Amino acid sequence: MDMQHWNPEQYAENGRFVSDLGMPVAELLSAQFGERILDLGCGDGALTIKLQRLGCEVVGVDSSLEMVAAARALGVDAQVMDGQKLQFNNEFNAVFSNAALHWMKDAEAVIRGVWRALKPGGRFVGELGGYGNISAIVTNIESALAIRGLAIPDPWFFPHSEEYRRLLEVSGFVVHDLELISRPTLLPGDVGAWIETFAQPFTAALASDERSEFIAEIVESSRPVLCDINGNWKADYIRLRFSATKPNIPIQKIAG
Ligand code: BEZ
Question: Strand 118-129 to strand 234-235: parallel, antiparallel, or no bridges (unpaired)?
């Protein structure tokens, strides 16, 4: 499957709301001065730099070279790394992640890597797309593909709260908060701009001269559900927000 390609300028125009709306999860992290924090999927570093300005020592990782370059230009210590293959050991007080984990389909590998990266007592606090996220958009994309005889595997992981709780607990985390939050999200443009920015694994399946008609069709099929009478578009976002801790003393499995 073709990969998502991140363009920092396009993201700044069509996706700035992602970091702007990430403040509640940053508040849940409650970063303390001097803490060493890993921002997993730091993107262009817009939230990472805010943590840094609180006096934290923050490292950002992202799989996109372009986004890492944009984060570095902001002054973030960022590096290219696949979140499913984290290369850190016992060194962070917290791992933070906003709107990135749903791109990492091997959630077990992510959680194992986060566990390794944290010091005992460290926190894992994040937000990702949850079960049912953008279901109207996905349905309309899939219908437009089906008309063309295409079926593209879903590139995202939108878990149910109980599924994600189990994944965290099986790895040894103690879960404190975990909830699905419906958050219809005002878009800066229409759903077509959202698709161009965030849904490239689908559009890449089409020849480049077929993409604008494909996107226009989805804009029209989505309009009755996602666009209000004033022309404002809202994406049907559902967030899964959580906080968990790697205990100081490993929890022993009870035999029998
Ligand atoms: C999200 O933040 O929920 C999301 C962003 C891009 C693609 C899919 C989901």
Answer: unpaired
